[in-house]
Amino acid sequence: MIDEIRECLSVAIRDGKKLVVVSDFDETLTNRYVYEKERGNHRPVVSSELVGLIRGLNRQLVTSVLVCSGRGSDDPYIDRLSRISSDFLVLENGGVLMGGDWIEVLASDEELKKIEMIKNELRSNLERLEKNFKKRGFVLLARMTRSTDIEFRLQPLGSRNVVKIDDEYTKLMKVVGDMVDLEPNGIEWVVSGSAVSLRVKRLSKWSAVDRVLGVKGIVRDDVFIVAFGDNRNDIDMFDGADMAINVGRERLTDSEYYLGGGRTSVMGALELINSLI
User: What is the pTM of this model?
Assistant: First the structure.
């Protein structure tokens, strides 16, 4: 598998292509977390070795490194993503771009109105939803402060409930879908490893990457895009890239290079890229 990746990259470089690296964050670039009681959140631990590898990539070969995440621009740990790359951040599963102090919301005013309408409907039912899932053994956390999507997380009350969390997310999506009209409003579910989100249907990590290429004046045919990811919310990114490297726990597409191994595999692939100089 590694030999195939090396050969494919070598051919692209011989053809005069510059590389663009795009990568998911959670469980791809970082897979260790420390619980911070005062914040009530798990802080992602970003390896200094990984940061060094990314920042040390030869910029004559790698023209851009983009971190693409489901996290929102209001996330308390957004600085952890910024540490990895000084380039743009793709946030909210493709709904927001951030670069330094600059933020661009990619949804239209009309789409934002529809998201806000759904938020208002859900707020009026949130207490009932929370009670329902608490009876089922889960704490429901809903993030409605985000610009272009609504994120839901379920935290099991007791280790025995962990095994049925996928079924509970399915239940949650059905219950919410019965409350609000999603399809007529151009809203869809996005499923990742530890959350589900409602987002504007036409937006995705890949559509945001395409927007970044335009902002930076990068011609798509002049570059070879390598995408790293681990979960279903990375599939659109895999489909748009020239090379998809899956470091998650299960296969996602037929055309990907499946390595598994999370951050360790990403670091190995980055070292491979640098060895091609």
Answer: 0.91
